[in-house]
Amino acid sequence: MRERWFQSGLPEVEGRGLRLRSLGREDAEDVYRLYCDREAVRFGYAPRMVELSDAVAVIDETRRLAAEKTIFHWGVASAETGRIIGHATLFHVDWRHRRGEIGYSVLRDLWGQGVGTRVVRTLLEFSFGSLDLRRMEADVDPRNVASLRLLEKVGFRREGLFRERWEIDGELQDGVALALLRSEWGGAA
Ligand SMILES: CC(C)(COP(=O)(O)OP(=O)(O)OC[C@H]1O[C@@H](n2cnc3c(N)ncnc32)[C@H](O)[C@@H]1OP(=O)(O)O)[C@@H](O)C(=O)NCCC(=O)NCCS
Question: N or C, which end of the chain is more exposed by having fewer CB within 10 Å?
Fold first, then answer.
């Protein structure tokens, strides 16, 4: 299954007004814009970037992971401009038990316009549909109200709290464990 999906690199996935695609070095400036924002990386989904070369390194790493068939790490491209406006990740995929975990971000200028919801719905459609997974998980800082709201809006349910799960810049952070079952998923609309 895994082999099939990574056969010719990272698969492209179409969503409403966006496309999940692999990143190239030509995207470095857009990727840098995404991760250099202190507010955007506040809840620790990635280290903050301080120079353009950090973006190049992340792009190279995502390509390496796709080649290793380990992690689906896409750039979110605007359907209109082709520019990268976010990221979407599908990781910890357990093919035997058919579950996986998602991560995502959106460029701060675009927050509150429904882009994040469309990214997550696209990830779910691909995971439950194409990949035939049956349980999707997420781990969110309890203070990340936007992300919690987004996930609960699309049907995720809280299953517990991981205490002091993360240590980021010397700060201990909890994680809310959420999951959505395919049997509860209403579809991408
Ligand atoms: C989380 C994130 C992806 C949301 O993206 P977005 O494009 O703003 O999401 P949407 O516009 O689809 O909004 C989703 C819901 O959250 C709500 N929301 C957005 N920002 C909010 C905020 N600051 N406070 C409260 N609710 C908020 C929206 O109103 C919407 O709910 P509604 O439809 O009931 O109104 C974005 O804030 C982000 O990139 N954050 C930094 C990275 C991050 O934390 N990623 C998640 C790691 S688990």
Answer: C
